[in-house]
Design brief:
- The complex is a heterodimer.
- Chain A is mainly alpha-helical.
- Chain A has 15 helices and two strands.
- Chain A has a domain of about 200 residues: Orthogonal Bundle (MetI-like fold), CATH 1.10.3720.10.
- A two-stranded antiparallel ribbon of chain A has the order 1-2.
- In chain B, a hairpin with a 3-residue loop joins β16 and β17.
- The longest helix of chain B is centred in the middle third of the chain and has 18 residues.
- Chain B is elongated.
- The chains are: A mainly alpha, B alpha+beta.
Chain lengths: ~300, ~375
């Protein structure tokens, strides 16, 4: 019998594979449950014992995007075969659609604020990280520590001061305010992560570019950036996930115009009983952009996480 | 191609003084070696010539133009880095053409030039490969290709063979030298390897602790070192120093050590106190008639020669003699030194005393 360090046996592969699948199932289960609930009818969603097999319906999705009211008795009598399918769904429950809900608005706010703050955190973070990595910055270590220390308390701990400041500055419930806030919170993470990635890039590459007739800035964006892309991409994902999911500050600082989806989704529960399918539908749609973004960058993400561990 | 002049160049990093007032001239077309132990300031000197560091004071002239404060991109020089610094996100051809693209050269012309350079270096068949999978030698060739493709005024190389394994290094150093002879470009080459410096260089500057100790042709430096540091840094095994208390007058042809008179090249400078009698191992000969004795401590067989370590009244010395000579550990042998090759050093200053033999070499260094 022979053992090899590099090539696992078939049995070992099976064990490893099952463990991964088992773990994936455990982590995926809540997610799958949310997605499934989004396609259930209200009755199915609260059935006990819980239903695993059910008649799928898009009722939840219609509900989350629309505002409905109870039909009057005589209107309910009228035939509704020639109405659009979403109105029919509402009619079946004795409701009628009176307009669009604010969900798409809130969702768009999330996109603007999430991606906007990620963009600024990455641009500023990359610039700062490059400076920390390449220039002689006075008090460099202290500054880096200071930047990190902004992350040491939970952001909600400073919520009240921020609320007061925002009120005085007129930033309450504005997109600019939320982008500014999330950028500020994410910036420390961005500076630290990207600084680590740029430190790993030998300075000779830039020097070679300088010798080859490029300016310092050209050397930065033609040589350093492509090589830091991996690290920047994974940092961007972390920043986006934070800004996208942030709830506490959004609840406190936004209400009408700039409210993001996380504080909005729980309010869907409201009218005429608990509409869990609508909540689940809203949550499912809310997951999509982060998933797409992560999948697009996943090649970078994997390399980014193992960066430094596997060096040539 | 260009002459390069370094005048009183000094570089401080904070309170650390990396280079102290260096002055030397590199003639047009020379293969010039900057030699010294690590931390001696040779790389810093090269980087200042290239524009990657700015000198704290002093002047640097390339082709008569003062460039000390000019950025690297405006000096029209090429630099080969120790770790090659090939752009990892580009393939071989792109790496080589990169400096041309910065000049905005038309595509067809770039292609032609890259082709020519690839031809010279024998890397035509790997032009489309990514640089990641290349062997050390091919990386080296690509780095050279990137340097020569734009016909710069001078080539600067920072230990370009340092990252290669010993076997291949020899081959590559010959290739480099041949390339230089073919192009006739001024080349400045940093190394800590004295053998490499002597093999390849037209001229050598030896630096130590940020100071230029000596500069000249390899043979001059080897034969007539200006300081004890240079004498011990060049040659393997290095020069022997027989230390003694004594004195030497002007115009003397002998020096007395332990009651024995040794012939030396006629002295032009007197000294008194702690002196060292410097002699290369190959100039230490065995002679039964000599009254100066040494005891054999060890022998190392090297094929055609052997290195014999001896204990003498003035310290341990090494001798390089023919391998056929039979020598046993514990033997007591008479020693004599080739009088034409002796350098006397003042131990306190570390400097060589002027003699009729070394005056010409030392006066220009």
């Amino acid at each position: 019998m022979s053992f090899s360090v590099t090539e696992p046996s078939v049995r070992q592969k099976w064990i490893a594979g099952s463990l991964v699948i088992f773990y994936a199932l455990i982590t995926m289960l809540p997610l799958l449950w949310i997605v499934a609930t989004g396609f259930k009818s209200s009755t199915d969603s609260i059935a006990y014992p819980p239903k695993i097999l059910f008649q799928p319906t898009v009722e939840g999705y219609v509900n989350v995007f629309t505002t409905q009211t109870r039909l009057s008795a005589e209107l309910a009598e009228q035939p509704h075969d020639d109405l659009p399918w979403y109105e029919q769904l509402a009619r079946n429950k004795g409701n009628t659609i009176v307009g669009a809900s604010r969900y798409s608005e809130r969702f768009l706010n999330s996109v603007i604020i999430g991606f906007g703050s990620t963009f600024f955190a990455i641009v500023l973070g990359t610039a700062a990280a490059y400076a920390f990595s390449r220039f002689k910055v006075p008090l460099k270590d202290d500054l880096l520590f200071f930047i990190l220390s902004t992350r040491m308390m939970p952001p909600i701990a400073v919520a009240i001061p921020i609320f007061l400041m925002f009120r005085n500055l007129g930033l309450n419930d504005t997109h600019a305010g939320m982008i500014l806030l999330y950028t500020a919170i994410n910036l420390s993470l961005a500076v630290w992560l990207i600084n680590g990635f740029i430190d790993e890039i030998p300075i000779e590459y830039e020097e070679a570019a300088l010798i080859d007739g490029y300016t310092r800035f050209q050397a930065f964006y033609k040589v350093v950036l492509p090589q830091a892309a991996t690290g920047i991409a994974s940092t961007a994902i972390f920043c986006l996930i934070f800004a996208w999911n942030e709830y506490a500050l959004a609840v406190l600082l936004t209400s009408g115009t700039a409210q993001t989806a996380p504080p909005f989704i729980p309010t869907i529960i409201g009218v005429g009983g608990q509409d869990w399918p609508a909540v689940a539908a809203g949550a499912t749609i809310f997951l999509v952009p982060v998933m797409v973004f992560t999948i697009l960058l996943r090649k970078h993400l994997l390399r980014g996480i193992t960066f430094g561990a596997v060096r040539k | 191609m260009a002459q390069i002049m370094i005048k009183n160049v000094r570089k401080d990093f904070g309170s650390f003084n990396a280079v102290k007032s260096s002055t030397f001239t590199i003639e047009d077309g020379e293969f010039f070696m900057l030699l010294g132990p690590s931390g001696c300031g040779k790389t810093t000197t090269l980087r200042m010539m290239a524009g990657l560091e700015l000198p704290t004071s002093g002047e640097i002239y390339i082709e008569g133009e003062e460039v000390g404060m000019k950025p690297a991109s405006q000096r029209d020089i090429a630099f080969v880095f120790q770790m090659f610094a090939l752009y990892p996100h580009m393939n071989v051809g792109k790496n080589i053409s990169y400096p041309l693209r910065s000049q905005g050269m038309p595509k067809a012309q770039i292609k032609k030039k890259v082709g020519e350079v690839a031809e010279i270096l024998g890397i035509t068949d790997i032009l489309n490969r990514p640089v990641g999978g290349l062997s050390g030698g091919d990386r080296q060739r690509v780095a050279l290709g990137r340097a020569i493709v734009r016909d710069p005024k001078a080539f600067f190389m920072d230990e370009p063979l340092g990252a290669l394994d010993a076997e291949f290094r020899e081959h590559m150093s010959a290739e480099l030298r041949a390339l230089h002879d073919r192009m006739g470009a001024t080349t400045v080459y940093v190394t800590h390897d004295q053998l490499e410096a002597m093999q390849m260089g037209d001229k050598i500057v030896v630096m130590n602790h940020g100071v230029v100790e000596q500069f000249g042709r390899p043979q001059e430096i080897y034969d007539w070192p200006s300081t004890m540091f240079v004498a011990s840094f060049l040659g393997s095994p290095s020069m022997n120093f027989l230390t003694f208390e004594g004195m030497i007058g002007n115009n003397r042809r002998t020096v007395e050590m332990n009651g024995v008179d040794f012939a030396i090249p006629e002295s032009l400078e007197g000294a008194r106190g702690k002196l060292a009698f410097g002699v290369r191992p190959e100039h230490v000969q065995f002679s039964d008639s000599s009254p100066y004795k040494g005891e054999v401590l060890a022998t190392e067989y090297l094929g055609t020669t052997q290195i014999v370590t001896l204990a003498t009244a003035n310290g341990e010395i090494k001798s390089r003699v023919n391998a056929v000579q039979s020598i046993q550990v514990g033997d007591h042998v008479g020693l004599q030194f080739d009088p034409r090759t002796i350098t006397i050093f003042n131990v306190d200053t570390g400097k060589a005393l002027l003699s009729l033999a070394n005056q010409e070499v030392l006066k220009h260094g």
